[in-house]
Amino acid sequence: MEAAPAGLDPDEIGRALAAHPGVVEIHDLHVWEVTSGFAALSAHVVVRAGDDCHEVRRSLHELLDERFHIHHSTLQVDHEPGPLQIEVPAPAGAERDRR
Question: Whole-model pTM?
Fold first, then answer.
């Protein structure tokens, strides 16, 4: 049965990921040991609208590698929904009225 490796606290890892710049939310976080001494992680990451999701993902991989010694991680990254933007067409004849 797969479980979080000894010495790795999934709650602590989740808090570290969630506190990272540009991260809005972490969910579906799973940490397990594939073989003795080989930890793996998967999570969904929501990144602030407008931020570079690829850079945030790379940075999170580095954090997991350096701080927690998790060398195999799969992060599904999505942007938070941005504000609804609607373009309103100019009224008919608006060009004529500007002359």
Answer: 0.77
Residues 38-74 as b or e (16 or more Cβ within 10 Å = b) = ebbbebebbbeeeeebeebbeebbebbeeebebeebe
Q: What is the CATH number of the domain that holds 57?
A: 3.30.70.1350
User: What pLDDT digit, counting tens, does each position of 84-93 carry?
Assistant: 545 567 777 6
- Cα–Cα dist 82/85, whole Å: 8
In this structure, the number of other CB atoms found within 10 A of the CB of residue 32 comes to 16
